[in-house]
Structure formats: structure tokens, C-alpha cells
Task: inverse folding
């Protein structure tokens, strides 16, 4: 179910399409090279494209991206959040994550636990996430962290947001 969001602050937020794969990889590559993100091939990006969101500028350039992955019906990770350096501090990342959370809340069963492993702890805290122990997410550690070069010396922080039943407000733990 594709969803396009109205422009906000000169940016358009939407789910990515297959044609966006190369541009997404181009945006991710500097962070992969710096060992901030786990390497992803174009094939991996294309395989997960239906769970990837992007922000486009007025010039139709992808300036931010993030993906979601479900580990169970009510456990979802936001991963590979990247905002082009030229567009940081312009609320692009915040608006992208907010759109993803709205999409998840509207389209998936609640309660829903959303988490991320991140270096941008303050960014996520401003959106309503709280810091938690990585040990809460053993499936994530087993599935993805085994591919990370920093596996034994992980310096990312786990953050989470809990979404209650649809008729209740967001619960921050």
C-alpha cells in the first residue's frame, strides 16, 4: 500500500519505489564506507524497497531515507536512517520518522513496539523515543548484528517507542 504524503517544508515524504534503489544506495554509501551502516547491496535495497521511505527535495532528489523491518507482528525496527548532510537540521529526518510512525500506527496492529539502534540518540529522544537496553532485542542482534564489523564493540544505543491501542495515545517507556 503506497502512501504519498503532502509536502512539508519543501520536501515530499513517501514510500520508495524500485526506481529509487540506486539513489538510495548512493545516499547510504558514505555511511557504509564510514562503517556507520551495515553494507547493503543494490539487490538488498531493492528487495526491501516496499519497507523503505524517502524524502525528496523540490528538485526531486532523494535527501533522506529510512527502512522498517518487522521481527514480529508487534515489534518493528527503524533502520538505516540517513539524511544528506546538506539537509540535516531542517527537520527532514524528524518528518520522515514521524511519517513512518503514522503509517505504522494506521496500518499495523497495536500495541506496537518500534525501536532503533542509533548514534543519534538525542534526535530520537526529541521525537518521543526512550533509551533502553539492546538486550530487549535479541532477534535483531541475532539477525543483523552478526554482519556488523563492530559486532563485538557495538557503540550504538537502543531506543524505543511503544504505540498503544489505536484508541489510546502514544506511550513512551
Result:
Amino acid at each position: 500500500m503506497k502512501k504519498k504524503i503532502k509536502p512539508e517544508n519543501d520536501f515530499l515524504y513517501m514510500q520508495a519505489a524500485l526506481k529509487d534503489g540506486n539513489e538510495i544506495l548512493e545516499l547510504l554509501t558514505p555511511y557504509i564506507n564510514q562503517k556507520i551502516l551495515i553494507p547493503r547491496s543494490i539487490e538488498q535495497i531493492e528487495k526491501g524497497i516496499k519497507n523503505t521511505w524517502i524524502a525528496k527535495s523540490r528538485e526531486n532528489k532523494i535527501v533522506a531515507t529510512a527502512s522498517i523491518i518487522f521481527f514480529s507482528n508487534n515489534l518493528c525496527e527503524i533502520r538505516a536512517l540517513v539524511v544528506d548532510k546538506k539537509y540535516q537540521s531542517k527537520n527532514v529526518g524528524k518528518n520522515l520518522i514521524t511519517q513512518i510512525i503514522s503509517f505504522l500506527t494506521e496500518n499495523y496492529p497495536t500495541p506496537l513496539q518500534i525501536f532503533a539502534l542509533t548514534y543519534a540518540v538525542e534526535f530520537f529522544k526529541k521525537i518521543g523515543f526512550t533509551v533502553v537496553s539492546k538486550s530487549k532485542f535479541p532477534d535483531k542482534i541475532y539477525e543483523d548484528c552478526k554482519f556488523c564489523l563492530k559486532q563485538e564493540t557495538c557503540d550504538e544505543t537502543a531506543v524505543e517507542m511503544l504505540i498503544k491501542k489505536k484508541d489510546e495515545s502514544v506511550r513512551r517507556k
